[in-house]
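In keeping with the milestone schedule agreed at the kick-off meeting, the structural modelling team has produced records for the first pair of proteins. Each record is given below as a sequence line and a structure-token line. The laboratory manager (R.T.) confirmed that both were archived under the project's standard naming scheme.
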Amino acid sequence: MTEKEQILRDLRRRIDRFIDRTLRDVRVELLDEFGKNFEREAFFNERWARRKHHDDRSRGLLVRTGTLRRSLRAEVTDRRSVRFFTDVPYAAIHNEGGTITVTRRMKNYFWVQYMTITGSKDGTFAPQLQRKKDGTLRNNKRNRELSDEAAFYKAMALKPVGSKIVIPKRQFIGRHAEVERILKEIAENNLKQAF
């Protein structure tokens, strides 16, 4: 093997190592940053719209069970790019915003949630609102929060089938100036290490 071939071979190996390391680092760093958007309740520095009803401070926006945040995935494709994705069906409407049409099934869900919170007269749901001995509602923090939530579910259940609900854009994944900065920083660091 000639010296020129040796140099080219070494250069290819360094380039391949640079590409592999950079893609791996991009996958890890950006996946972590996209996850942090749920803690920030913002897409980096762009704050998410607050909920109109049940603005409960005990949990963050887009976080009820944590399923959406835990569903974020990333994979290196064809040694040329990194693809970020989620398999949660409602992720796109939250990330991009839009409108959804009220269906009979949605109305039923909202009624069930309302009945679960308030308790039903036939006893099929255990009442969660706390009552005094005389049957009136207690005026405590828990009841006030549940009452706000119950009012939200009742309002949603009373919407006519076919009406529209506007879901505000609460982007948590995608292009941003901060993403570009992170990409540049990773590439520069890996370039220094490789060469």
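The second protein of the pair:
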Amino acid sequence: MSGAWFIHGHAIISDDDCIADRSGATPPALRNEADWTRFQAALDGAAVTVLGRLGHEANPNRRKRNRLVLSSSATGVERRGDTWWWNPVLAPVEDALRAAAPQGGTVAVPGGRRVFDLFLDIGFDAFDLARAREVEIPDGVPIFSAVKTGMRPENLLAAHGLILQSTEALDRTAGVELALWRRP
């Protein structure tokens, strides 16, 4: 998606491409201080953070960031308290972003899987993909639905127009690596 908004995905995944355990919770093994610090700074700089309802409920908005929550219970785009709610079946992404971030800017997308799937189709401009090499989550929730069919997240990002810009070790001791994917 081009224009006033820069769509930037953020995820830390296990070595078997999962973002959560089978219950949908992020396991402690996927929590890494170096990744968390970098991720929080990115959210602080975003015009709006887009996440699913479960992520919104599991992670209180203590920093009072501007949030846009995907939910089938929303009647298009609506304001509930201090949060924007969006049903993508009833309103296009442009309407949601115009409401939640009318000045444009960075749209941070930290997931979950349905949110990542939706924005993979909408079009990420960037994706920061951290991988915890020492962690596996049997029967976990994959980052993208297509991972269930054998696709690797990196192949999906490339297939949707992103190019691997660089990689770096975020935490050598924990085996956490960061791959920066960008649209050319």
